[in-house]
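Build the 3D complex.
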Amino acid sequence: MALNSKIPEGDIEKKWSNYKGHVKLVNPANKRKLEIIVIGTGLAGASAAATLGELGYRVKVFCFQDSPRRAHSIAAQGGINAAKNYQNDGDSVYRLFYDTVKGGDYRSREANVHRLAEVSVNIIDQCVAQGVPFAREYGGFLDNRSFGGVQVKRTFYAAGQTGQQLLLGAYSALERQVALGSVTQYTRHEMLDVVVIDGKARGIIARDLITGKLERHFGHAVVLCSGGYGNVFYLSTNAMGSNVTAAWKAHKKGAFFANPCYTQIHPTCIPVSGDHQSKLTLMSESLRNDGRIWVPKKKGDTRKPNDIPEDERDYYLERRYPSYGNLVPRDVASRAAKERCDAGYGVGTTKQAVYLDFRYNLINKYGRSEASKQGIENPDEATLVRLGKEVVKEQYGNLFEMYEKITAENPYEVPMRIYPAVHYTMGGLWVDYELMTTVQGLYALGECNFSDHGANRLGASALMQGLADGYFVIPYTIGNYLAGEIATKPIPTDSQEFVDAEKAVSDRINALMSVKGTKSVESFHKQLGKIMWEKCGMARNEKGLTEAISEIRALRKEFWENVRIPGGINELNPELDKAGRVADFLELGELLCVDALNRSESCGGHFREESQTEEGEAKRDDENFQFVSAWEYKNESEWVLNKEELIYENIKIAARSYK
Amino acid sequence: MEHYNMNLTLKVWRQKNSNDKGGLVTYQVKGISSEMSFLEMFDVLNEELIEKGEEPIAFDHDCREGICGMCSMYINGRPHGPWHGTTTCQLHMRAFKDGDTIVVEPWRAKAFPVIKDLVVDRTAFDRIIQAGGYVSVNTGVTVDANATPISKADADKSFAAAACIGCGACVAACKNSSAMLFVSAKVSQFALLPQGQAERESRVLDMVAQMDKEGFGSCTNTGACEAECPKEISLENIARLNREFATASISSEE
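Done.
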């Protein structure tokens, strides 16, 4: 199948406005006859459902949590980017576009990224109008901070809880539509299949997680906003319930899966403390604004961090990347941390950690500035620390407290110990410019699509993309499709396709329950995670990936022969819910490794040991790999690779350098 | 800090479904590390129950970083347990010592019926938000975000109220099962911002009416909600809600 990305003609600055000017519209009376299903209530899902409801469509929105407000966008900490240039520091739509394409190591689609940069400014306006309480300066105007991979300050934030505030904004817009009757909300429901009729997505099979009952829902279109698949690694910064199931079911019904091997390992997370660990916790990238990353210069140094003098510390990011320093992109920072730890310079009991130290800025940046404001002359160090602490607390207080609760160490006094962890997945369902997958009428928004971040996402850009897709893109693009559907009457859910789809879902649940083996779902998930992290994690090679593929296949076989799921089908049964998700991860994990094996270049978060420069930097192979890998599902363990060539007309591609 | 292992006695509320009477069941757990989170201790217990062929304990949880508001255990008579300003998922086992007995129950409130074991139905909170917890603005406004300056003090106060995670600990802590802290946090967030002014009066009246309709109790100013709130939402918000409600009631009678 030839992929058609449907990129509009014309100059890149005009593509989106031209598209909007010529796209087909649906009149208000017809909108009321059209039904749309939205899966997931994170930033993409909540904003899409609310906006489509406002436009007059009849919307059904589903989430597996007990309330739409719990979706994992809520946990995003640091901020959201927008090309407002409020700081007068040289930002522009073009620069945000350029930074994002470069940050993604030249593996994203130009037209989509430019549109993202264009609408970024509208997002901030919209959120402020909703009453999102962003951080402000004393003059009453919005404050900004800087993030990795960027030399301007364009990140809007609300302490370390930006995702929470943005999601609550979208959630409140959604609840308003629920109250008005234009959106119906189904909580504690999980989508278990897409119903495709004559090549078009026409509905879903969902399971009520309280009663276990399967339900059939019709829609003229289905919009997936189900997030990323980082939990295939078991340990990640994702929520416990984050899963790939909705996207994977869509994949098996014909939606191509693009670039699954592009996974983001975030450099600053709290290190693993033991085998009991159930998840990993992020410490926001914004901390790298004010924190300096270092390890001791001496191998195996056992002194306490504050006892190691300045000239015996290796600020390795500042040393290796003088122009970006601590603010290099995530993939670069993660690999640099791994390199130091592998070389024997790691700190803490496990030696799998580096220091993130705030003392310098606490004293010199914030302490001195406060002292000056308060007219304190020649302040001593204790005074500077005290004054600096107050400012730091205001900016990152909740993160420092969280760190202390988890580690029992006070990061105002002792440097944080941090290590990279799985955080985000740039890969996802392949979509065209209109965010439609390869199945007609089936859309993918937010983290569950692939289009904007290439091989590495820049910090504070996930929130931007989720809200761009939901508030400002899908409301236009879905109309272009639905304009052709105004004569389609709702398809009765007792039609054969719905019956068959429900039966297939029911058979799979029965198959899971009837294994009656000896090992828990959790133990399989942990084993899968171990394979993925060790052989398809921060560094990958041909041998490891080949082994991983056969190990995953064997593990999947064992799962279906030996998993034990207690309880029944027709009741709240979290073990059964989890079993279905892990079964899907066991399939996705294989594809992720297949894709990583196929892409023998290094790019962004995908680092193939065979492809690196003498200095250990990722080495792209543009001649052979300047394309999107879009995998078409054929059968178990059988995929066909389709390629979308990436064309750069507005950016001169080059080796990515942050030196 | 030194790490240690401990053996504990757990008394956990088990209830098959909303019709079941339910009761406390005693479990012994061994070799729990002080570095574990409280929920990881439950993971260990559940793995053991599965191993033995018993049904694991159902409990709500998702982000495990204290922000989604899903976890909701009533631990030794306190919502989210002994640590101040902390959700259940962020509570760590170093809060306990070897030999301790820990009693774990679900949130108790008429408006939060038990679904199973420690899982309760909190959809009443969504319905309160539906009654008015928003600014009625459609997508597509074109007013620049910096067109209206907002004093930093107001923005900070609004943010502090908006930090509510909707977990329901305030209701569980209150002897009257009142939802006043939750409702007041949302009312305050908007009352403090220029964007919230147009609907200021209808919002507070409608949200309070919905709160009453859901069966939450009245507020008698005991302050248990503030003391137990994992996000330290201030009682000042309840005072503000009362003022807002009084003003709106008077002006709606005019």
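Chain B touches chain A through 81 residues (CB under 8 Å).
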